[in-house]
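Problem: given the chain below (457 residues), write out its structure.
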Amino acid sequence: MAFDLVVRGDLVLSDRVLEGGWIGVSGGVIAAIGQGVPPASAEVADHRGLLIFPGLVDGHMHTSSALGWPGIEGASRTAAAGGVTTCVDMPYDIPRPVTDATILAEKVKVVNATSHVDMALYGTIRKDGGVEEIAGLAAAGVCSFKLSTYEYDAVRFPRIDHTTMEAAFREIAKTGLMVAIHNEDQEIVEGAIAAARATGRTDPIMHARTRPPLCETMADLAIFEMALETGAHVHIAHSSLARGFDLAELFRNQGAKTSGEACIQYLCMTEEDLVRLQGFGKCNPPFRTADEVERMWQSLAEGKIAYVSTDHAPWPRHKKEYSGDIFACGAGLTGLQSFAPLMFTLLEQRGLPATLLASLCAERPAKFHGLFPKKGAIRQGCDADLLVMERGDFTHDAAKIQDREENRWSPYDGMKMKGRVAATYLRGGCIWNGTEVLATPGTGRFVPRQHAETFLG
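Solution.
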């Protein structure tokens, strides 16, 4: 037989669709692609009439902010069901963030033992320093670094002062890796929350009002100025504003290595949804206006957005329930299982090609994180990671999320979708058949960064 497996269907590449296509898989790797009558193989997966995308690469998610590393198992299950075959996991874990190569090695062992999908990992530094650990983390395989201008926890998720951040940027620049920044100005947010509490305004809309657009753009300007000064590739971890992408472009034109991503919620959710969803719609940065959503789509059309991610952060339900104080609710959304159907639906609604899903949610995040050409595309030599999409009229049901019961909630619950994930393949093996996760803990593997080349799009 020519191949171990042939997968048939309409192949959605980043630049075109191959109707009536086939993918030949050998040893878990894509050995050939074509159209028409497929070659001989030991096994055939016939998905004719369905769309076959590269498995998605979610460049921004948090498995371990609520449960610690035990959260990897459940989050990776829901990733498999959502067609996300590679998760790029943030370093802000309970009880210790990934601040040195020893902690990274411990986390890698847990990933290899419990994950259902492949996983790349971010590294970070401590609030009180740790710049000297950056080279070791890079050598040990982190794909990128993450720092913050806003503090949620002094240990797990600290604010890094400008002096330490500049020093970190200089060291990260030597590695060639990207450093993503949580971009909110601490003083603006803390002052606004204090003022809101003083007047008794703790209702849901105040989450957006106390994190105004200025708190993002002020942080963007600071980190991009340091990018220009240090030569580091500095990336907005989540811009809810089109202006964030304009600023990244402005600094690129001046010679800086700057970029930014959009989380999918900023392409579809508005302040009205925050009021409706209450705590279950709380994330940082917050949802913006309907006009801002339109500006975000314009940025996407103009090619200014690096890639689209979820910022999946599965707080247990009780942490999201609103009881009169929006500031007491946990900040973060679930989004892995809805990612592919939602992005497909949003593109369909706007008459945009499905190839953008393959580009913005698979190939480009793989390139920004140094995982390409191993991950992110349907091309010879890539891992045979595939997402099979069935077109039709479906409804997202949070009760079917493949995670712990307390994590089975979604801001997109009840939303009408134009597609569903009919199957997911990881390195040629079917890990989701449309109704159940077939992968077992440990099916997934840690994926180290493949090279030190910088990609800016």
